[in-house]
Amino acid sequence: MTNGGLSARNSHALLSALLVLSMAGCALHDTDSATDPNQAGALNGLPPTFDTFTQTDVTPTQDLTTLDADQLARTLGSWWEIFDDKTLDALVLRAIEANWRLQAALENIEQARSQIVRVNASALPSLNAGVTASRQQTGTTSKLGFGLYDLYGFNASLAWEPDVFGQVQARVDTASRDAQALAFDRRALMVSITAELVDAYAQLRAVQQQLSLTRQYAGLLEQQIRLTGRLADSGLVAPAQVAQTRQAYLTTQAQIPVLQARIESLITTCSILTGGFPADLSKTLRKPAPMLSVHHPVPETLPSQVLMQRPDIAAQQARILASAAGVQAAEADFMPSFSIPLGTGYSTTPFDLLLNPASFIWSLGAGLTAPLYTGEELQASLAIAQSVNREDQLLYEQTVRQALKEVEDAVTDYQMSQQSLSSTQGMAQAQAATVVQQKSLFTTGQASRLQLNQALLDQLLASQSVIDARYASAASLVMLYRALGGGWHTELDRSPTPPLTTESSDAHLTDNPVRTAPVERAQVS
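The line above is the sequence of RND transporter; the predicted structure tokens follow.
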């Protein structure tokens, strides 16, 4: 793991790419993009690596809401599979399918899709039909006659307002881009949840190892208390040494319930993130398992498309395009609107003549309405739309700079954690060699049991440091993938993702019946 990884050269190339993206965002909404939002973010071609970078289109190549959990895992790069932990793979798959926050985000996308349909419907003709029946009394001064009579009618009307100046189309574009942004928001949430889950699982396995070492450490200290007690009785050691050993033992014992509580809390976190209840994974995850370790090196170079996998950047690009379409719609409101009404039907006083050809009536017209004076309402609406677009551009700049910081911090933390892990492992190996020497000396009578136990205690402390360093390394790698928007695809030979429930005790992820709703499928367009 220490041989592979992102070099300083590649990390700087990645940061340079983000800076280029930041500058590209400034050009997303110029005069042309305000009138034609589809021109913003055009795909001009991407290089294979981060040596150069070109802004890409925010339109996703595949609609994430139409995919099942396994397919969604693949679109995220399945980066967690680098740890080769089947239980973790199944946990992540379950979270993608059943997490309640992701389910709620999917409902937001459904609402946005319905809004697209509603806006688009306003450009279509509307057809209505009606039947009337009334009894009327005319006055004696009416030129049409007077008296009491019945009036029956049947009519149909067709109305259409042609979208001559593009008001409706601009609003459809706005709704479509809003839905697209929500889809990217859901992907960002998905990346966040998977990273939280992997980190919680990695921490769980680390704390379980810490608990095991702490118990071993307490057991050795208990032996030391007995040994130093006998030596103190013989006058070979000071009583203070016995008291110090007992204090260390009690301190170590006090750490055990703290670690146990931490384990339960992490199991609860995993259960909630996977869409279950706090105790759902208790029996399965309480059993200790090996810590996460990277079995495949991180690539030295990354494709440029990795940066575009940051869904928060893509979502903000979509919002810029949505507000640009909003400006176009506000400008179109200054133009006239046209209407073409058509009416036809039957109207008669005797009911038996209702469908008689002589009772047939019709009307056809055309109308034009132009805003002459609106009390500056239209001007204010346009100013608001333009301000929203400028705000979206500023938020885009902020998002890019935040991404720059997160990537830089993640790359630095990953590199430092690798160095720390290497040093800690070297220290542990040296301490293991010391234990071997002490055992040899103890066997030949050149060292006491007290000295051997002290060497074993030091070895346990070194092992504790290795556990901390291994978790820090795994956590920094998780944050690196998260900062890059969910990871990247590699050519690793991965086995298929396991099902949510299997016969294996390591992959059986629930002790209670699954209480989840099926994944809804939608299409954002």
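Note on the example: Strands lie at 126-138, 147-160, 337-348, 360-364, 367-369. The chain is about 55% helix and 10% strand.
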